[in-house]
Fold:
Amino acid sequence: MILVTGGAGFIGSNFVLDWCKHSKEPLINLDKLTYAGNVNNLQSLQGNLQHTFVQGDIADQGVMADLLTKYQPRAVVHFAAESHVDRSIHGPEDFIQTNIVGTFRLLEATRAYFKTLDAKAQTAFRYLHVSTDEVYGSLKPADPAFTEKNIYEPNSPYSASKAASDHLVRAYHHTYGLPVLTTNCSNNYGPYHFPEKLIPLMIVNALAGKPLPVYGDGMQIRDWLYVTDHCSAIRRVLEAGTPGETYNVGGWNEKPNIEIVKTICALLDELRPKTDGTSYTGQISYVTDRPGHDRRYAIDATKIYQQLGWKPAETFDSGIRKTVQWYLDHADWVAQVQSGAYREWVDANYAKRAA
Structure:
């Protein structure tokens, strides 16, 4: 079996669902259930003996040691992380504790467990660390896309904390021989995405008749990766990746934020037209940019294609249509995650931004 951390979050829960769809191998799903962790994401697995959920913290080394000893997994897939840049600007300490200290303690527990395995089990074991393209910093318009050889230049507390965790994972391979794999992905989107990030926030606000806040001029460029494509990449890296190697995972979809917002508006105009006949684009509101906002990210995913044969199945057009339709079909899920704490966060981050 495998052990997944952060498996009730956005990417983690999609991975767990994808794993159970494509494999019969059991998995242990550990999640602390912070604001972004949601067991309702996993409702379809109720009664499925392949999936075991455990509420716990990766920073609790004793809990991790007990889980590893009890279940004897052949792999650890590490998603658990604080991941929102805006939240890291407002409160960086949680990012240091989860992304750096938590990863360190998970590595320590895994290292101790790895030492107990026989030679055959050690050869088969893998520790897969899921990271982000943001560790590479910001690109200029004409710069080539990030490859695995780019130097690290993180510009936010979030990306700095992920960069630190990447370095720890690398060090545990070179110092202790832990068979690690690292993936650095571009911006994910799709079902179960907590509505603080760009795409789900725009969908949810548009349907609620609220402003669609676009930072600065809206020309910040990101590479967009449909979440199930990311899941298939992780499965492939876990299956055939070379220990010690890093694999960049991207969707080959560079688009500016304002184009994303207008695409969402056009889809909603088609799929859920407003009763007054106006377009959702009328709700777009340009607001003060966030501090240190990186201008462009782009992933060169040539290595994972050439070495492992992986490429995304979804185009942006197909993926964004599926995403918008999912939110239209799951208004109950959206309502459930929009707690008082969520509303307080949105107010704190957006209400004081000058238009």
